[in-house]
Amino acid sequence: MNLSEYLPLTETTYYILLALLNPGHGYLIMQKVEELSKGKVRIAAGTMYGAIENLQKQGWILSVPGEDTRRKVFQISETGRIVLGLEAQRLRGLVALADQYKL
Amino acid sequence: MILYKQCVVNIQKLENWIDEYRRQGYRLVKANPNIGRYEFAKSKEGDFLPKVRIDFRTFDKKEAYQDYLSLFEDSGWRCLYGSRSNGFQYFEQMHENASDDIFSDSVSRAARYKRLSTMWLTILVPYIPIAVALNATGVFGWHNISDPKTLYLTPGLWEMGGAHFWRAFLFETPFVLLRAGFGGFFFLVIIVAFLYFLLKAAYMYKKESKLR
Question: Residue B57: inside a domain, yes or no?
């Protein structure tokens, strides 16, 4: 399967995958995304829950055991890491182009 | 103040309805979507008046539902009414710092309707074989429609006139409906209603997910 077909990622997906390079539960992801985006991206609870569900179905994140029984903990999967890497590469290419044209 | 409002598909409309009372200073204290009963209380001036937002989602496992509720609570939304299997989940803000809404993009907000449509479909499906079986056993009574006069058994009914006729005719009609098996139409009505809700929810999903 060619993972490049899934690109470009939405901004939300990109941030969530980035946040889940370290394990964390839903609310932790929300806080991490806000911090990573310097407050620009704020994901609400309902949107977050749906995003986690979709990413898990796609196999880009995995549920990992956690201490808190009331909160599920997730982490990026091997596939998720590859997709994130491909997206970063794509973005670097675009930025390099912008630099070349002195934008 | 107790009010009744039914919601089968349009969640947005229900939220707007609750918002309207919020603007007038009423706080939703109890909700029961199964019977469409909503209890509001007038809140005191200066009190925090929480917003109410509704999600639609069912859960197979208790742990998954708990995880879902924890996520909302962590972000400042308390479950006002909800059940694991019913699907309608009502949340209210816990404090001023809670996020403004439970969805941050239109696609995830519209996805409620996709899940709602799937729910109506799962309810509808078991009715189809029942309807087919009933049809095969002649319960629907289609064949009776061609000659309805023969269904009336009152001797000499069709020769009667005026008030005499109408009294006898109307008296017998309910029995005729039962005898002809029009009770089977009840199933058709249910199926058509479910189909309508299912399609309406699917349409709402299409429409809302295009909004930006």
Answer: yes
User: What are the pLDDT digits (tens) for A21-53?
Assistant: 999 999 999 999 999 999 999 999 999 999 999
| Nearest-by-Cβ selection for A45 from B66, B71, B109 | B71
- What pLDDT digit, counting tens, does each position of B112-149 carry? 999 999 999 998 888 888 878 877 776 666 666 667 77
In a domain? residue B112: no
Residue A3 forms part of a structural domain = no
CA distance A28 to chain B (A): 9
- What residue numbers bound the domain in which B73 lies? 2-102
pTM over 0.95: no
Give the number of C-alpha atoms closer than 13 A to the C-alpha of residue B28, restricted to the C-beta side: 32
Phi/psi at B56 (5° precision): -125, 115
Does residue A94 sit within a domain?
yes
Give which of B88, B108, B116, B118 to mutate to test A binding, by max A Cβ within 10 Å.
Answer: B108
- Return contacts of B136-139, CB within 8 angstroms, 24+ apart: B138/B181, B139/B181, B139/B183, B139/B184
